[in-house]
Design brief:
The chain is of the alpha/beta class. The chain is built from eleven helices and eight strands. It has a single domain, classed as Alpha-Beta Barrel (TIM Barrel), CATH 3.20.20.70. It has an eight-stranded parallel β-barrel, surrounded by six helices. The longest helix has 15 residues. The structure holds cytidine-5'-monophosphate (C5P).
């Protein structure tokens, strides 16, 4: 199967309530993109079977559970995820240093831990209600630095914060970016802080999380061709990526 240049930097979010469709998405996207993302919906419905199905295809597997609990509980969950053979696992940076360190210790370099900073559905008003006003990039960079110091391999941030995080932390720390839309336009869904693939990669992102624009496209194969053209235009092979250098160096 041909993986068009650029699509190795795409993680497709497999968000669906139907098992048949989940399998169909794995079969379509697995050979064509770099990463398949099993999220909360799929994992809550089907558990390890969803991970096992995603692993059958020619792509890395990203278990997006966004763990956030006391350190020992998170460490146990990280261990369980490692046993399932996933390549990436998310947890919330807001869980704090002790939680992040416990997770990194439990991972023992078996999985790349990605710390979620500020979720991309939060706009300025929502951040203000949470008493997290303004300066989203500063906060996200601070939380990402906390995650790096604790031993995590990367962070998840919106396209709006990726440049600030990249300025704060050099590769091989991975930056993973959801909220990607062609043209960077906010559409009628729940993403607020969005960006286009080309600018987001040029700002320092390693991996783009893309869900509905690919999975709900009328012609998903044509959509893949379009996204590949967009991405490869922004990503000359010689620029390289922390993704290809294995994320965090071993300690
Ligand atoms: O492209 P689309 O908006 O459909 O992508 C949604 C996916 O991105 C979901 O699986 C969601 O969990 C994930 N995600 C996100 N915002 C984050 C982290 C992950 O939207 N900050």
């Amino acid at each position: 199967m041909i993986r068009r240049p650029g699509l190795e930097r795409v993680a497709v979010a497999l968000d669906t309530p139907e098992w048949e469709r989940f399998v169909e998405l794995c079969e379509l996207f697995g050979p064509r993109v770099g990463v398949l993302k099993v999220g909360l919906e799929a994992y809550t419905r089907w558990g390890p079977a969803a991970v096992a199905e995603a692993r059958r295809h020619d792509a890395d597997v990203f278990l997006d559970l966004k763990l956030h609990d006391i350190p020992s509980t998170v460490a146990g969950a990280v261990s369980a995820a490692c046993d399932q053979g996933v390549d990436y696992l998310t947890l919330h940076a807001a869980g704090g240093s002790a939680m992040l360190e416990a997770a990194a210790a439990a991972a023992r370099e078996r999985v790349k831990l990605l710390a979620v900073t500020l979720l991309t559905h939060l706009d300025e008003d929502a951040l203000a209600v949470l008493d997290l006003p303004g300066a989203g990039a500063t906060r996200a960079a601070r939380w990402a630095t906390l995650a790096w110091q604790a031993g995590c391999h990367g962070a998840v941030c919106s396209p709006h914060e990726v440049a600030a995080l990249r300025a704060a932390i050099a590769p091989p720390f991975l930056l993973v970016t959801p909220g990607i839309r062609l043209g960077g336009a906010v559409v009628d869904d729940d993403q607020a802080r969005v960006g286009d693939p080309r600018t987001t990669l040029a700002s320092g992102s390693d991996l783009l999380v893309v869900g509905r624009p690919l999975t709900q496209a009328e012609d998903r194969r044509a959509a893949l061709v379009l996204w590949a053209a967009e991405i490869s235009g922004s990503s000359p092979p010689e620029s390289g990526s922390a993704l290809n250098r294995g994320g965090r160096s071993r300690r």
